[in-house]
Amino acid sequence: MYNRSMADQEPDNNDLRIVVESKPSEAKLRELNISGWPKWGCSPGKYQLKFEAEETCYLVKGKVKAYYQKGGSNCEQYTEFGAGDLVTIPKGLSCTWDVSVAVDKFYRFQSSS
C-alpha cells in the first residue's frame, strides 16, 4: 500500500485538503448513485486544476498524486489516490494532478447554498 497523504492528521480550519475513502462499500456507491454521475477521464500527465465547487469523485481506474499548498503556508503536500477510491476535493483548492495511470472517474459537484 502506498502513503495516502503527507497532510497532518488534524488540519486547522484554514487548511483545504483532499479526503480519500478507500474502497467504499457497494451499498454506499449505490446510495450515492455513482453510476448516474457524469464521467470524465484523462491520460497520464500533469494537470493544473482549480476547484470552484466541492467535487466528489469515484475513480474506476487510474492513479493520481495531487500536489497542493498547505493552508496559508508555502509548504507543499500531496495526497495520492487511485482506482476504487472515493475522493472529496474542497471548493477553492488549486492543485496539480500528476496522473501516472490514465484516469476514468464518475464525479459530481456540490451546489452552493
Automatic annotation (TrEMBL):
InterPro entries: RmlC-like_jellyroll, RmlC_Cupin_sf, UGlyAH_Cupin_dom. Transmembrane segments: none annotated. Residues 33-107 form the (S)-ureidoglycine aminohydrolase cupin domain. Pfam families: Cupin_3. PANTHER family: OS04G0445200 PROTEIN (PTHR33271), RMLC-LIKE CUPINS SUPERFAMILY PROTEIN (PTHR33271:SF3). This is Uncharacterized protein LOC111024205. It comes from Momordica charantia (Bitter gourd). The lineage of its organism: Eukaryota, Viridiplantae, Streptophyta, Embryophyta, Tracheophyta. The gene is LOC111024205.
